[in-house]
């Protein structure tokens, strides 16, 4: 397979939620593959250091303010993106949030915060970008889901609902926009340490519990997502749409042993 299938030179990618965390890793991977970037955050000033890093890679970078819970903010970002580069080829719908609580303690406001950000925000950002892509009959939309797009975990009711919704939304949009040359896929990370969940990884017992259930025996490292995001953004995935690609070390296999395994089984 030709390496050019993964070359993003000359393409423009919008990556939402790039002030920190996995959004920066995803954006960095696209830049290294050749893409110019539009970086977004609710506070534009937080993007300046990362934008300079992208420019140091030899790529163009534009910082734009975006609150995915605000319709006017989405519309304004899309207009500025079009003004900055003309055509947008790739969207990585990464902005998200979480509230960790037992289900009986989740408030109306908790639910709205998570669903409005992760699900409604993903839809309306995708819609705004699709309106820019349709006239060019080309686009790659990558919605960021989670292993919770296919699994449920206690204490994550709103989050699981939102990420399951992102998976279903991805399939619907793939069907809607395929005739316009736009592919829509869901990139679903498993357990990765991020700013949102770092406190969990300070608990040694919980980390051991988690790792025991991951067939590859470690949580995800941020650069484990690099190949997947470049693949879904590139020509290499041109006949793939409506799919959910799990990058989870295998935890979605079920992560439960049906028999006892001898301690020396791997030796």
UniProtKB/TrEMBL annotation:
GO function terms (MF aspect): oxidoreductase activity, acting on the CH-OH group of donors, NAD or NADP as acceptor
Looking at the Swiss-Prot or TrEMBL record, what is one Pfam family this protein matches?
adh_short_C2
Q: Which domain of life is it from?
A: Bacteria
Q: Which residues are in the Ketoreductase domain?
A: 11-180
Q: Does the keyword Cell inner membrane apply?
A: no
InterPro entries assigned: KR_dom, NAD(P)-bd_dom_sf, SDR_fam
Q: What keyword terms does UniProt attach to this protein?
A: Oxidoreductase
Question: Looking at the keywords, is Oxidoreductase present?
Answer: yes
Supply the NCBIfam families for this chain.
Answer: PRK07231.1
**UniProt record similarity statement:** Belongs to the short-chain dehydrogenases/reductases (SDR) family.
**Protein name (record):** SDR family oxidoreductase
Its taxonomic placement starts with: Bacteria, Pseudomonadati, Acidobacteriota, Terriglobia, Terriglobales
